[in-house]
Amino acid sequence: MTRPACVAGAALRCLLVAVATLGALGAAAQPARGAEADFTWSPNAGVVNQRITFKAVQDPSITVYRWDLDGNGQYGDREDASGPQVPRTFKKARSYTVGLATVDGQGNVNERVKTVRVVAAGGPAPLGNRPPDASFVFFPAGPVAGEPITLVSTSTDPDSPIPAAGQQWDLNGDGVFRDAAGPSATTSFPVAGTYTISLRITTNATDVATVVLSVGNPSPPGASVGQRTLSLLSPFPVVRIAGRVSGRGARIRRLTISAPPGTRVKVRCGGRGCPFRRVLARISSRVSARGLPPTRLLHIRRLEGRLLRPGARLRLFVTRTGAVGKYTRFDIRRRKPPSRTDMCLVPGSGRPLVCPSR
């Protein structure tokens, strides 16, 4: 039976049910489709006992805006509020977590959480809601005429993730950012020469990155050019975590990585409760009687049974030479499943990137 969509009159009830469902699913939850939740605040420099106004980035399809202003992950408490614009006054100098959950006319729920830094009057100015920094990389490093070129955004926003709709590409150098949208794009050029490509990032502000590509002539027939395409590790690694959460943090029962033989694995643990700072391992390439399997399972046994305190962070890097690897991050929270981030590790880039489209 198809589940009926939320109608405007019942949107609040649907929001509370959907947010509870997302919290129960935790790291395994899939993001809802629909308009993305996002917000800004002013003044950007928060000061104790000074009123701060939070403003949702509005979308015509959104019917409900609900705020978590006390940072407990709930959207219906006494200190919380509803509507596209809400005020809040903070009485202590520290970092606060503020969340926005939205529901559109089809019942799709989206959530955005940000950190607001508040300082004492006369103290150093907080960082506030800082602007984004646009940047991107391209593959292969030496493109030639007629060859597909993959562009991957490495842009950052210090305060929040950048939505796909906030990343617009100009692939033909005409200054109009409507050739592609999202964290990656693919293009090609028919003849050798120089070409201008730009990426525009829009969150609470706008920033543009521009690169002039030098496109060469293709190699003569029969010449060896090596591997020039950007390919993912195959099968792509799968990271799973299991355990139990409480007010004290998360007790890890199992952390496993399923990846192709010969893959390198690095696990970094930071924060209270970590039994190590770094663990290095390699997926075995040993051939069994049944041959070499496509993947093998690696257990991080030093974490089994360990209690990681709120604020601790696990970072996993799964790589192999010549291929795009996997990056997974778990942030331990109080009484909630760890928040999870999955990205790609592209050869030649020093930081995780949004995975390129295939």
Give a description of the structure.
The chain is mostly beta strands. It folds into 3 domains: 8-119, Immunoglobulin-like (Sandwich); 136-215, Sandwich (Immunoglobulin-like), CATH 2.60.40.10; 238-345, S-adenosyl-L-methionine-dependent methyltransferases (Single Sheet), CATH 2.20.130. It is 4% helix and 41% strand. The protein is built from 1 helix and 24 strands. The strands form 6 sheets. Strands 2-8-7-4-5 form a 5-stranded mixed beta sheet, with helices on one face. A 5-stranded antiparallel beta sheet has the order 19-18-22-23-24, with no helix packed on it. It has a 4-stranded antiparallel beta sheet with strand order 12-11-14-15, with no helix packed on it. The chain is flat, with a radius of gyration of 23 Å. The protein starts with 10 loop residues before the first helix and ends in a 13-residue tail after the last strand. Residues 1-33 and 223-228 have low confidence and may be disordered.
> SSE order in H/E notation?
HEEEEEEEEEEEEEEEEEEEEEEEE
- Radius of gyration equals 23 Å
CATH superfamily of the largest domain: Immunoglobulins
Task: Kindly provide the name of the CATH class of the largest domain.
Answer: Mainly Beta
Query: What is the domain total for the residues?
Result: 3
Strand tally: 24
